[in-house]
Amino acid sequence: MKEVWLHLVKWDKKLVTESLESGVDAIMTAPELIPKIRELGRMAVIAPEAGDRKMPDDVEIVIIKNKDDEKRAAELLKSKAVVVRTTDWDIIPIENLIPQGGDRLYTFVRNLDDTRTAAGILEKGVAGVVLETDEPGEISKVVKYIKEIDSETYGMAVLEIIGIKNIGIGDRVCVDTCSNINMGEGLLVGNASQGMFLVHAENIDNPYVAPRPFRINAGAVHSYVRVPGGTTRYLGELQTGDPVLIVNKDGRTYTSYVGRSKIEKRPMLVVYAADGAGNTCSVILQNAETIRLTAPDGKAVSVAELKVGDRVLGYIEKGGRHFGMAVEETIKEQ
To answer: First and final CA of the chain: distance in angstroms?
Structure first.
């Protein structure tokens, strides 16, 4: 995932505070400023011979004035992160370096316009940007832009319910996240990674229990759940602090974090569905009125009211998963 670093040349409490609050990934600075940064909060720091990543051992700055400088940067990219500064903000050297180590290549930017350019070079863009600014407001704009363009998007499928069956008691996982989740949003969960359902957050008013907009009553412990980075986890292994991927009805996503994961014995049911191409999938959920899937228009549909022929949202993919990673081989999960 693309990162945003702040280049802090001199002490500025407002810049550091905004970096912490906006979600900047690291601050590049001088060693003597590290204690002041630590006083305000926990933040990854990059500094000469100090910090979480040290310069030049882990990160090196290269000023590119000619082809020899570009060649030096390319060689360094084989073993460490490189931050390049080009003369007159020329993007040609960056275009040349991305194919040689774009996942370690960073570049200095001054504002949101520079960031848009750096992130879009050769479509792939750099691994991250190092922002040089005196304006705290510029930090939040750059971070917001980078996180939005770097978020994963899924092509949501409309699934038709073909069966519902009660199966008795099982261990179900209730995921309380660190975010208040909106209507039409939830987690992608399924019995198999090839077919997953958009399980809606518990943010609906009902006569039985108060809404919990941070909560997703997600399913049985064995179920796959989508997490950032195009991978999956088992619901039963999620713990406090783990990242999860919140997905909306249009397939747009953002990352939240597990605040608490509760595993309790509850009555369960299986929902079976198929897409328009005949691909079938299923999910095991708690049998309760407050557990909901998501309709194509984003509305929540209670499993207590679900019936054959209803349509809900999900995600279908080809291939299988090995330790959460997609693999191209024949895997049948049933």
So the answer is: 33
